[in-house]
Amino acid sequence: MKTRHLFLAILLLFAGSMFTEMQAQSNIKALMKKCETMDNVDVTRIQNRTTGGKGTIITNIKFTNNRELLNEFIEALKKDDTEATYITESKVNGKMIPTFYRFKNATYFIKIDESENGASISLNEN
Amino acid sequence: MKEEFTDIEGLLERFFEGKTSNAEEKELYVFFNRKDVPEHLSSYKPLFGYFESGLAEEVHRSETGSSKKPVTVRRRLLSMAISAAAAVLLLLFIYSLINRSADSDPFEGSYIVRNGVRIDNLDEIRPELELTLQKALLQQEYANRLFEMAASVEDPFAKIQQEIAAHYCELIHQFEDENVRKEVQNMLQVDCKEQL
């Protein structure tokens, strides 16, 4: 009986850590997926298997003249920043703009162009 | 008839004493299976009915039990063979996933979406994919260097604390009395032995 409880506890811990891992970056990833259905948004998704195995997955999103989408991305990044292990920000026109986010298995490179209401967001997943 | 019954009674007596042979017991079973068993012996009828069927069942069980062994061994070997084959197939499948053949395209699964339209044709989008990949790798290289720099930077506050502690110790060593030196060290919360 005790062994069964121990096994169950380990299983629950494992499930919990998996759930936490899935919850990380959830807002940004959902928005990036949504971009595939939008007009005037270019999405490039590369599955690079040159290193063998699953390889690296690179997703690049580019858009201009879309203030609403730009604000959504900034919001999504702010919501997910608690799970990030490393963040860098730059001051642009008096505002702090995120430029780099690192999570456990993913890295986001963000280049925001306020003058054009656009952005280029690159996601590298290992 | 009476003689027969007397014989049967004698056999019965020997049966209960455990002295009957197989042939004699068979004679008893046959007798008690008849419909015209006399009344004074009819009470033994169910007993011999049980013995006959019960024994028959035990004989059957012992016979089938002895023949079960080969079937169990056969089944066990078969299940082991199936398990081994399944394990080998699983390993081969995992191996094929990990190490794709040289003929497969490294960009397999990649695509570009423009204005909501997905383009999967790798020949068409290959140049753009390669350019994007190069940019991504450069960005990753830049990020790695950034991390290396961040890891190598000393904590400036710790350095300042060390310098202040060193100056305090220089002043403390000017006191001749050791007890005074210890008191001042405690007050300033420095350990001058580390500074020596």
Describe the protein in words.
- The complex is a heterodimer of chains A (about 130) and B (about 200).
- With about 130 residues, chain A is an alpha+beta fold.
- Chain A has one domain (about 25-125).
- Chain A is built from three helices and six strands; from the N terminus they run ααββαββββ.
- A six-stranded antiparallel β-sheet of chain A has the order 1-2-6-5-4-3, covered by helices on one side.
- In chain A, β5 and β6 form a beta hairpin.
- The relative contact order of chain A is 0.17.
- The mean pLDDT of chain A is about 80.
- Chain B contains seven helices and two strands.
- In chain B, strands 1-2 form a two-stranded antiparallel sheet.
- In chain B, β1 (about 110-115) and β2 (about 115-120) form a beta hairpin.
- The mean pLDDT of chain B is about 80.
- At the A-B interface, β1 and β2 of A face β1 and α4 of B.
Structural class by SSE content of chain A: alpha+beta
Q: For the largest sheet of chain B, list the strands in their spatial order.
A: 1-2
Total domains of chain A: 1
Question: Helix and strand string of chain B, N-terminal first?
Answer: HHHEEHHHH
Instruction: Count the DSSP helices of chain B.
Output: 7
Overall average residue pLDDT of chain B: 78
Sheet having the most strands of chain B: 2 strands, antiparallel
**N-C termini distance of chain A:** 40 Å
Stretches of chain B where pLDDT is under 50 for at least 5 consecutive residues are none
